[in-house]
Amino acid sequence: ILFIPVGGYYTIDAKAATEVCNQLKPRVIIPMHYKTEKGIPNIVGVDEFLGGKANVNRLDVSQAEFKPGELPATGQIIVLKPAL
């Protein structure tokens, strides 16, 4: 499970995050530190990272539970609902 910043400016941007994901090949990718309605204005939204990617699952909750042996076989991107 890879939690990765994708918003740029203060951290890596969407392009660099994609490169990291391609190198590590995690089974689950959870993007973080991106612009939201109430968030930091200097960064970009998650859609820049998600563009052209398959296996994207947007959840309407701000947390997820994973159990050993139940992770997807191939990479899945899970976008959690911002808690703030």
Description:
- The chain is α/β, with parallel strands linked by helices and 84 residues long.
- The chain has one domain (2-79): Ribonuclease Z/Hydroxyacylglutathione hydrolase-like (Metallo-beta-lactamase, Chain A, 4-Layer Sandwich), CATH 3.60.15.10.
- It contains 2 helices and 4 strands, in the order βαβαββ.
- It has a 4-stranded parallel sheet, covered by helices on one side.
- Strand 1 (2-5), helix 1 and strand 2 (28-32) form a beta-alpha-beta unit.
- The chain is globular, with a radius of gyration of 13 Å.
- The model has no long low-confidence stretch (mean pLDDT 94).
- It comes from marine sediment metagenome.
What is this structure, in a nutshell?
This protein is α/β, with parallel strands linked by helices and 84 residues long. It is 18% helix and 19% strand. The chain has a single domain, classed as Metallo-beta-lactamase, Chain A, CATH 3.60.15.
Topology:
Blueprint: E1 2-5, H1 14-24, E2 28-32, H2 47-50, E3 56-58, E4 76-79
Parallel strand pairs: 1-2, 2-4, 3-4
Record keyword descriptors for this entry.
19% strand; 84 residues; RibonucZ/Hydroxyglut_hydro; alpha/beta; 18% helix; Metallo-beta-lactamase, Chain A
